[in-house]
Design a protein that fits this description.
Blueprint lengths: L13 H12 L4 E9 L4 E8 L5 H13 L1 H6 L5 E5 L10 H5 L5 E6 L4 E9 L3 E5 L5 E5 L3 E6 L4
Length: about 160
């Protein structure tokens, strides 16, 4: 048997069951930004976001749902340590809703053709963003043209 080969009856690896279970418990308006399962130590780190933001109450409710899950309890019979948070202020923008909730802010964009742009975001939809460069020139980019984007924090 080759290393990394999974027979057809094991197409879903055990830890994928855990992740799939957690995904099924996430509210519909939320998205998983990052997921790390440290199964040997019994720890799961989860970063979630939504168009309306994530607050302490939301993370607490989700943590209770996850800890009550039969699948989680089967995989972690001694209990699981959960760390659930929202993305940091400097986190990459990944989903269209993250761009939408930052309209009016300046974002730094690294494009797939190796340009670095500072854009004041004026609009976004499911396929693209638009905004203005410092010189006032309008710019429109499809998400597949964006390699990385972050909100610029002005103090």
């Amino acid at each position: 048997m080759k290393v990394g080969y999974w027979p057809t009856f094991l197409l879903i690896r055990p830890m994928d069951y855990v992740k799939n279970t957690i995904e099924s418990l996430i509210p519909a308006d939320c998205a998983i930004i990052d997921y790390n399962d440290f199964s040997k130590s019994g720890k799961i780190k989860l970063i979630i976001d939504s168009s309306s933001g994530i607050d302490l109450e939301s993370t607490s409710i989700l943590a209770k749902k996850i800890k009550k899950s039969e699948t989680i309890n089967d995989f972690y019979p001694k209990g699981v340590q959960l760390e659930i948070s929202s993305p940091g202020i400097d986190a990459d923008l990944i989903y269209p809703f993250q761009y939408s909730k930052n309209i009016g802010r300046k974002i730094k964009i690294y494009t797939t053709d190796d340009r670095e742009l500072i854009v004041t975001l004026s609009g976004s939809n499911e396929t693209r963003i638009n905004g203005n460069l410092k010189n006032g020139k309008k710019v429109e980019l499809a998400y597949d043209q964006i390699q990385k984007a972050n909100v610029i924090i002005d103090f």
